[in-house]
Amino acid sequence: MKQGFCLSFGVLLVGLQACATLGEGGASRLDLVRQRGELRCGVSGKIPGFSFLDREGRYAGLDVDMCKAFAAAFVGDANKVEYRPLTAPERFTALRTGEIDLLSRNTTFNLSRDASGGNGVAFAPVVFHDGQGLLVRRDSGIKRLEDLRNQTICVGSGTTTEQNLNDVFQAKGIPYKPVKYQDLNQLVAGYLQKRCAAMTSDRSQLASARSGFEQPGNHQILPEVLSKEPLAPLSSGGDQRLADAMRWVVYALVTAEEMGITQNNVDAKLQEAINDPSKTALRRFLGVEGELGSKLGLPNDFVVSVLKATGNYGEIYNRHLGPQSAVPIPRGLNQLHRDGGVLIAPPFQ
Amino acid sequence: MQSCFSVVLLALIAWALWSTGFWLVQRADWSVVSGNLPLFAIGSYPEASRWRPILWLGSLLLLTLFTLAQPLLLRRGIGLNSTILSWSWLLMMPLGLWLLAGGGVLDPVPSRLWGGLVLTLLLTVFSGVIALPLGVLLALGRCSELTTARQLSKIYIDGMRAVPLIAVLFFGQLLLPLFLPVQIEINRLLRAVVAFGLFAAAYVAEDVRGGLQAVPPTQSEAAAALGLGPWQIQRLVILPQALRIAVPALTNQAVGLLQNTSLMAILGLVELLGISQSLLANPAYIGRHLEVYVWLAALYWLLCTAMALMARQFERQDPSNLIATRRS
Lengths: 349, 328
Description:
The structure holds 2 protein chains of 2 kinds.
Chain A: H1 2-25, H2 29-36, E1 39-43, E2 52-53, E3 59-60, H3 62-75, E4 81-85, H4 91-97, E5 102-108, H5 111-114, E6 121-123, E7 128-130, E8 132-137, E9 152-156, H6 160-171, E10 177-181, H7 184-192, E11 198-202, H8 203-211, E12 219-221, E13 229-236, H9 240-259, H10 266-275, H11 280-285, H12 292-295, H13 302-310, H14 313-321
Parallel strand pairs in A: 1-4, 1-5, 9-10, 9-11
Antiparallel strand pairs in A: 2-3, 5-13, 6-13, 7-13, 8-11, 8-12
Helix pairs in contact in A: 3-9, 3-13, 9-13
Chain B: H1 2-27, H2 31-34, H3 37-42, H4 51-75, H5 82-101, H6 116-142, H7 147-162, H8 165-179, H9 188-214, H10 217-225, H11 230-260, H12 272-280, H13 289-316, H14 319-327
């Protein structure tokens, strides 16, 4: 039976190769999406703040808003999205087989996924810089990493989290006492039983764990980030036009925040651009002049559709992860470059 | 010594009951369940057409109650004829498909919007519809005197039983699209139903074979002596008896099938378990795992119990049993 399995997997791989070579000659998936009038977007559906079902049974979250932005740009309607809930192991297969057009399922951008020798996918710009963080009690007076000198820290054992913690604290020369746990639930329990001054995990996980606490407001995530987990939407490799269109939709969200264009004032800004020929940057961005959109294979005013649907990047962030949301995560690296973050968009020229 | 044990054991049981009861009544926050009943029942089905899946669920419930209450009603002389009852059960399948998918006077609703309990039931019922006839055919093939038919059935049954269900489902959901040209797109739900059906058929076949072998060979000899042809013998004499004998085992399969549909949550269908997991990711319900899973357990228990009770009733209707009870 085992041999049979090996054989069938061998056949599968050959089939996979054949499909991959077949796909390259064809038209861009962008045309297929526009023709279909609907975007198939792979999401997780199970991550607080990123993608989940709301009370009405609709998907919501940061990853979901990305799907909406892409749909608004590609087919002009943010509601024309078919969400496909996917698990981590099946996400790349679904992308490769064409079950979905693109994936917005907090996937870490790294070399082996990007390279054609690895998963061979094409990443859009990073939409959320996640990373390992530290959660502490507000009344502990801990504000920075240095305050954790000689304190105990709860950490999952045998994980990269544990290594990162060690690396960062050793590099800074801060001694600490680790308390190790097997999984996240035990970690949280240990922290709540006050066995340690701080607990560490990915910041998005810390935030969602905290929102389950009885008094979430009594705990805070420190501003320091111990590791890099850049999460980005992605499409199948070898489709330059779709990848370009996705890249510039994300950049449009960032640029809109830079320019102060929001969901509410986009109509006024558009009117302003039409009335005032001297505002060339605004006119180009909103597609009043120039042919920026059509160069991507999109309508020239795709930015307007996107902003009307989701608002700019900051609005999307605040809606799902901002201080008023149920899963508040400090913006940190996810701020605009001018505010001290790493978000920066190349010019729309 | 023994009484000491009993006291400790009783105390433990009392403590467990007390703390469970306390949690159920006092500690648990059931708003995650009570506030989302429509989601659990029908998933994200379009608001305007929600009456359709609800109507289907309602009629299924009504029919179940009718079926379970039938012996009581019959005694009072107001029960439905069991032929009518069987036909209405059969009718529920096309009715459910039509109500959910739309067509004709109803707006079409794509299958990706189906979810929750409706999807769980749909997966179970339709894979059962595939598995039962295929299983009977395979069982007949395996008991047949034709070498080719016997060998083919044997290979299929042994092959299917040697592969884990999750592998079959993975194949259907993820690998099948790789082999097909891009233009051909088979509905995801259909792929799931067919995968479940093909898998369950192998097990059904073995259950039916057990039934076939329990029918004494004298039955077919007697039927042949009466001048019946081979198909008539199977259809009129052997199969009715064999299937009746296989009912308890087949019920087992049906209950197993219902519970196995929850595997589809791993593969991204939002059936009962899938929709619960997506709901638990809603920031408003974080940390409510226990409530949701207790509720799911109760729901699955209710469904399986209803199936088991109906099967028991079906067994009681067995003519040989009826004769036996009348005699006693």
